């Protein structure tokens, strides 16, 4: 388990354009998952997997937010279409993704590009990173995470 000894703090607009801050989640664990693009096959599979496990995560004391470089309106459409019960935050300038190391070079269809790297982080009640999952696959990732955190 990786442990960062500095609380991660950020504020981003949600799917409705309202600011959401990590301060809102202090005292609870927060799962932050970065997804490259709303309404694409892989991101839909991952988000729906989180949706299907959301109530179990909540009961176990975890909150959840998804973050992408999409604008709030696209995240709203994605949330409504897939019935996602958790906030989807917009990181259009990718500053928060950079803070987590979830923005950078990646391979896509055999070519290197720069963009969002599918990653998930578990923040503890104090805002410090307790677990990190980098360069994850969209399918199967949530099952691994829930097993490791005991949900």
Q: Bin the strand percentage.
A: 25-35%
Q: What name goes with the CATH superfamily?
A: Glutaredoxin
Q: How are strands sequenced across the largest beta sheet?
A: 5-4-3-8-9
> What is the chain-wise order of helices and strands?
EEEHEHEHEEEEH
Structural category is alpha/beta
* Rounded Rg: 14 Å
Main β sheet profile: 5 strands, mixed
Brief overview, please?
The protein has helices at 41-59, 72-82, 95-100, 141-148; strands at residues 11-13, 19-21, 29-34, 62-68, 88-90, 103-108, 111-116, 119-123, 129-133. It has 151 residues and is α/β, with parallel strands linked by helices.
Describe the 3D structure:
The structure is a single chain. This protein is α/β, with parallel strands linked by helices and 151 residues long. It has a single domain, classed as Glutaredoxin, CATH 3.40.30.10. It is 29% helix and 29% strand. The chain has four helices and nine strands; from the N terminus they run βββαβαβαββββα. Strands 5-4-3-8-9 form a five-stranded mixed sheet. A two-stranded antiparallel ribbon has the order 1-2. Helix 2 links the parallel strand 4 (62-68) and strand 5 (88-90). Helix 1 (41-59) packs parallel to helix 4 (141-148). The longest helix has 19 residues, at 41-59. The protein is globular. The mean pLDDT is 92.
């Amino acid at each position: 388990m990786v442990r960062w000894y500095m609380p991660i703090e950020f504020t981003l607009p949600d799917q409705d354009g309202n600011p959401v801050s990590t301060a809102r989640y202090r005292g609870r664990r927060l799962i932050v998952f970065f997804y490259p693009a709303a309404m694409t096959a892989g991101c839909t599979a991952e988000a729906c997997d989180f949706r299907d496990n959301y109530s179990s995560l909540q009961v176990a004391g975890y909150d959840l937010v998804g973050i992408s470089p999409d604008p709030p309106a696209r995240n709203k459409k994605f949330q409504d279409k897939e019935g996602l019960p958790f906030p989807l935050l917009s990181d259009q300038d990718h500053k928060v993704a950079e803070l987590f190391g979830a923005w950078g070079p990646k391979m896509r269809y055999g070519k290197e590009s720069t963009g969002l790297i599918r990653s998930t982080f578990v923040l503890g009640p104090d805002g410090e990173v307790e677990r990190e999952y980098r360069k994850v696959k969209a399918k199967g990732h949530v099952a691994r995470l829930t097993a490791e955190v005991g949900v």
